[in-house]
Amino acid sequence: MLDELENQYKAASTALAAAEGREALEAWYRDTLGRKGNIYLLTRNLGALSAEERPAYGRRLNEVKAELEAAYGEKLALAEDEELRAQLAAGALDVTLPGRKPAEGRLHVITQTLRDLYRVFGDMGFQVYRTRDVETDEMNFELLNFPPHHPAREMQDSFYTTVEGVILRTHTSAGQIRAMREYYPEPIRVVLPGMCYRNEQVTARSEMQFTQLELLAVGENITFADLKGTLTEFARRMFGAERQTRFRASYFPFTEPSAEMDISCFLCGGAGCNICKYTGWLEILGCGMVHPTVLRNGGYDPLKYFGFAAGLGPERIAMLKYGIDDIRQFWANDLRFLEQF
Amino acid sequence: MRVPLSWLRDYVDIDLTIDEAAELLTNAGLEVESITRIGLPGAELEWDRERVVLGRVLRVEPHPDADRLVLATVDYGAAEPKTVVTGAPNLFPYLGRGDLSGEALYSPLAMEGATLYDGHKDGRVKAKLKGRPLRGIYNDAMLCSEKELGISDEHEGIILITHDELRMTNEESSPAPLLPRSPVPGTPLQDVLGDAVLEIAILPNTARATSILGVARELAALTGAEFRPPSYDVDDAAGVVMDGPPVDGRVVVTTENPDLNPRFVALIIEGVAQIPSPYWMQYRLRLAGQRPINVVVDVSNYVMLEVGQPNHTFDYDTLRRRADEYAPDGPIQINTRLPHPGETLTTLDGATHKLEPYTILVTDPAGNLSIGGIMGGLESEIRPETSNVLLEAAAWDFINIRRSATALDLHTEAAYRFSRGVHPSLALLGAQRAADLLRRLAGGTVARGIIDTYPNPPAPVVVDLDPVYARKLSGLDLTTQEMGEMLERLGFAVESHGDGLRVTAPDHRLDIEGPHDLVEEICRIYGYDRIPSTRLADTLPPQRGNPKLEREERVRDTLVRLGLQEVWSYRLTSAAREARLLPGSPGQLPSPDERPYVTLSNPPAPDRNVMRHTILASALEAAAANSRHAERIALFEIGDVYLAGEDELLPDELTRLAVVLTGRRDRGHWDDDGVATFDFLDLKGILDAFFEDLHLPVAYEATTHPTYRPGRAARLLVGNRQIGTMGELHPGVAKGFEVRVERGQAVLAADLDLEALLPLIPDHYRYTSLPAYPPVREDLALVVDATLPAAAVEAALRQSGGALLRDVVLFDVYEGRQLPPGKKSLAYHLTFQAPNRTLTDDDVSKQRGRLLKLLERELGAKLRE
């Protein structure tokens, strides 16, 4: 009996060594260790053995089974690895093929720019305050110290409506008085975003409709130095920590003193390029200390309260940042333009 | 304002480079927009210092072989003079006059190798001067025209400066001559005529800088240099000599409207010769942008540019002839007044103007003479034979001049200045300066006496400056004395007054109203760049946030996440553009809103004359514009519409949202099997997801609406409130908007009232805890009437499903031969789940049985076998 076991074992080992591939291995297993397999069937011999022979035979049979199982397992694992390797090798792709892009949406570049501005000024305590597009001449001009027929009005050609005294706002400064009258006597720190309109020839450089963002701070201890500091911090966060700012005297009827702020050109670093017209500086905004007449019109005593205001053009900022050369693109809604931002 | 640096230097020493001076002016509010250099390094044409020099013409002789050429012998500083062949017409008068050393005749001489502009070519073409024989005589140098030197386009003759011109000025009185008293031939021309012109942008409050003297004064204040204005004193040794027959009794002036014409100064100058003005004056006028005409016109322009006082010269004899009609023995009677009804005036450019009732005129009893402060009249203008002139220098109300000039469309240099403000005090100074120049340069005799009608001289502007206020406003820690000194540099008179300063503004400052204006002056002189930068230290205001904007931005983010591109449109449109949303109403323009439009009285274009009533039209225009090139269009716009009220002054501005989809559903890929295009359910799905994201339950209800295709439109309801419409666009509407679509391709649109919707979005919502026990899924196909809305079936399922029914998802809709006509089958995945135990098959089948019974009763639904 034991001889038979040893013979079967030898034959099975030889057959296992010869079996290649998962299928051959599984067939070997079926024929050897499966329920109808040669080795498995040797279990039946136990019944024909005497009580003395049985333990030795049984022990040996278990040994043989375990050895064959182990050998099989090892060989099967190798075969499976091989098979997987072959399968994966066959599935190679051209990794340079274009991918399947999801259809994503995007925010308009002006929304993105406004959000940048809200964030930077929001960090300094400025909250967004919105007012209307269709305004009174009083809010847009008169209360801001632009008398009728004043030459300062020439700077902003208006669209008039058929209702006497009602125009499309020419600047977001039109919201200053509304903000003051609502906030008085609290201090104010707001940004006023919005659409503005001027009766100008539409060209690559000027639009009849454009957004502005007005900055307004009013309080008992606000100085021209604070205006410089706040706007310089803004310029550095918006255009880079190394930006220099330059303030030049200017004129707006609703601020005194008034200034223009330039920033060192972030394209050439101030060395001079065609974007900064070889001056090294980019005009970025107009600003100034709120005119006493405007403070008074807003309800604040100009001897007790001080304030500053600034007006920024989101389109101008976007044009500089992204190198956009035609302002008409902003409202043309060409997807080929919008999808770039 | 174009400011030649050489002119500026007459009145202030400039110890700075051109760029430094420009930067100083720019920072102080006189923005130098450009610098044009003439002949100097950095100029478009730099004059070679060795080869382009000042020459002195010694002799002019005929060319032996050419009548149209002459030989000029020129001293240019070398041991031997040079002989130059030239055809300059302005040298011919000197032909055969022999030795010209008594004439002291100077001209720029360029020598071989110098680069000049070619005088014979159009435009500015550079060429290097080469020696060559001209009709047999070798020529290696050239006397130059302005064009050849890049000064102007003038090429009629060479630049010729006679020393006589210099003798017309004198040492004490400006203008300083362009040539030194004893010019040395051979001096590099750069040092004689080299110049730089600063183009300064004039802001409404810098009217004082519309003159050379104004800019010089400013520069002096900024640098601390001395400002040396010319002397205007009458009969001063250096001033205006008046030795003609007295003016008294020859002219009287009245001003009917002193508020519109506060001052009128008149002088008579007789015996003026209408000769060309001296070269230095022509040169400066050209650089400043004026064309020289003759000395009378040129002096008038020169004084306007230099002093800032526009002035006008009348032909005195014409005025006298007119007076002979109305007062044969009396004086000329000048009167300024408003026009009579229907009165017209012909200006010296030959145009006849209807006059506005507020346009002030200079007149005499015979009629009108000129439009005050804007333009002279044709009849009394200076003629070639004029030798006696009446010079007017007046002051006019700036707002009235601006209105009149705009109404008449006459934008003259005079109107430009008067409409920005010219102080009446300048009228006398300007008149005296002009009289003096006419006497010196045109040989005129100034009548003794000045007519000066100035009934109400304005009081000087006096402002008290509290130094504490100045420090609080500026953030600068300056002493009272320092502030006073800075103001004095600008010409303000300053005296101590209590703890502060009492400051009197100089006449040339019309922009000073209060202490804030003085603080700006202090900041300007101190230098804006030297003011420190500080962070806000004032109390932080209460933080209110902006809930509406925050929700609006959340809506934007949600829509972008759903694959939509944001657009922003023009808000100006026309009723006709918007009426395309409502087709089928011929002969009238239906509006998306019945309230009136906000209508412009000066629209930029006929089809941009109202503020929009609907944002859907904006979004459809955007879709149409892209339909020519984009395969997939999925966009939204958020913005206001403007609905005018009948009684309200200002319209309601209401925020709306429009969504438009058309074209392919995905972005397209090389291995796509086919192209699927957007349909109704894509839009519906986007909206479903949108409202889910906002945690806002919304119901859809079939509707009919002319914008949408019949049977494919719904209104959206939150509770009982309609918050918008959506659907497949009516093909007629798509066509009206020129949205280009392929056959069978739909355009989907939604128009939502964000104004109503935003407040409904809940600020917060409850989280549902994750289930601990497994769900049981059941599929159920129901046969119902084909007309029954799916939403009704789902609602009934949810209602009758009980607490254990967790979710209902429709997975199939079938209509067809396997069902009786008029019926459809709706198949649902039902998910049952209990929060506290594992459900048994028994639980579920009981639930299902009850559900079917209820559905049959409520909706007549049957289980599909």
Could you explain the architecture of this structure?
The complex is a heterodimer of chains A (about 350) and B (about 850). Chain A is of the alpha+beta class and about 350 residues long. Chain A folds into two domains: about 1-90; about 110-340, Bira Bifunctional Protein, Domain 2 (BirA Bifunctional Protein, domain 2), CATH 3.30.930.10. Chain A contains twelve helices and nine strands. In chain A, strand 6 (about 245-250) and strand 7 form a beta hairpin. In chain A, helix 2 packs antiparallel against helix 4 and helix 7 (about 175-185) packs across helix 9. In chain B, helix 8 (about 295-305) packs antiparallel against helix 12 and helix 13 (about 465-475) packs across helix 15 (about 515-525). Residues about 165-175 of chain B have low confidence and may be disordered. Chain B folds into six domains: about 1-40 and about 200-225, Phenylalanyl-tRNA Synthetase, Chain B, domain 1, CATH 3.30.56.10; about 50-195, OB fold (Dihydrolipoamide Acetyltransferase, E2P) (Beta Barrel), CATH 2.40.50; about 240-455, Phenylalanyl-trna Synthetase, Chain B, domain 3 (Phenylalanyl-tRNA Synthetase, Chain B, domain 3), CATH 3.50.40.10; about 460-525, Phenylalanyl-tRNA Synthetase, Chain B, domain 1, CATH 3.30.56; about 545-760, Bira Bifunctional Protein, Domain 2 (BirA Bifunctional Protein, domain 2, 2-Layer Sandwich); about 775-865, Alpha-Beta Plaits (2-Layer Sandwich), CATH 3.30.70. Chain B has 23 helices and 42 strands. Chain B has about 850 residues and is α+β, with helices and mostly antiparallel strands. In chain B, strand 7 and strand 8 form a beta hairpin. Chain B is about 25% helix and about 25% strand. Chains A and B meet through helix 5, strand 1, strand 2, strand 4 and strand 5 of A and helix 10, helix 13, helix 15, helix 16 and strand 30 of B.
